[in-house]
Amino acid sequence: MNLKEFASKLELSQTTVSRALSGYPEVKQSTREKVLRAAVEFGYRPNTSALGLATGRVGAIGIVLKGGGEFGPHTSEFMGGLGNRLQKEEIDILVSTVDSTEAELATYRRLAASKRVDAIVLHSPYIDDPRIELLTSLRLPFIVHGRPQTEGAFGWLDIDNFSAVHQATRHLLDLGHRRIGFLNGYRGRIFAEHRQEGYQTALADHDVAVDPALIGNGEFTDEMGFRLTQGFLKLENQPTAIVAGSMMSALGAMRAIRIAGLKVSEDLSLIAHDDVFPYISPENLMPSLSTTRSSIRAAGARIADMLLELLQGKPAQELREVWPVELVIRRSTAAVLQR
Asked: What is the pLDDT of residues 64-114, one digit of tens each?
């Protein structure tokens, strides 16, 4: 049964039926319920092309990724949550890969001109982010994964990055640690700035001065954690604890600690921000790893829901959420050893 035949049975226009199936808010609730019941009764499934002609949508969400670090486990987990949710609505994801911010901006212009996507997921916002200004000027709907500094008519979802690192650092300080290393993301990314503020605020609360030599920045990989931790351990006044910005950098830190002939927990405490990877369990590491917990897969699924709400007419300013982060204490953190 095609759209014309289905609409004829209901004595409704094809446009009304398409808009009812797509969740447009201007369709009366009684009409929407009538169409949905009939779709189940007749086994009707809308043709994507026909639906696009009637609603002006193409049934696809765009996301642009830069090469290198943006193809790691964090991205795969996020895409898993996003894709699984959108698949239920028969919405595809169009992924573009670029190697620079200029190429990313050009991709957004091309997507807007070609009308190949209905909306965009913009990830990892940074200070004075030109992508936000461009997408706004192109009138291309978008949801930000992260919390922008810029004000505007767009929605976003973020975790409380300040609290995550503040809790982790405070936990170590309460255990008596005063030399605390910090493996953070690249400066300029807003999530990394919020984490830096959380780290510094916790130190200040305990009258501990910030030592720049104990702060490292980079892409959250095993190699980054390994390399920066090796640098910390070469200092004359080594750290007694480390806050790692991700599970991946924590694995690298653990490797560096062991190669140095030290033991996690006994010689050096370690706590990580954990994005709940299904293939790396902090409970099963030796020793089990203390973490601040947040699911990036759940964030992907929620952003998919927010995109659907946005396309159904919900005001973008009502689509803004900050998720709390849970502190989970395990065996990798212990009271500082007196040296």
From this structure: 998 755 667 888 899 999 999 998 888 999 999 999 999 999 999 999 999
Give the number of other Cβ atoms within 10 Å of residue 298's Cβ: 15
Q: What is the pLDDT of residue 217?
A: 97
- The C-alpha atoms of residue 28 and residue 26 are separated, in whole angstroms, by 6
Query: Does 53 score more than 50 pLDDT?
Result: no
Picking from 45, 23, 44, the residue whose alpha carbon sits closest to that of residue 32 is 23
Fold exhibited by the domain 161-293: Rossmann fold (3.40.50)
Q: What residues are paired with 159 via a beta bridge?
A: 323
Q: Are strands 142-145 and 155-159 parallel, antiparallel or unpaired?
A: parallel
CATH superfamily, domain at 60-159+296-323: Response regulator (3.40.50.2300)
CATH code for 3-55? 1.10.260.40
Averaged confidence pLDDT in the chain: 91
> Are both 60-159+296-323 and 161-293 of the same fold?
yes
CA pair distance 214, 193, nearest whole angstrom: 16
CA angle 2, 3, 8 (to 5 degrees): 105
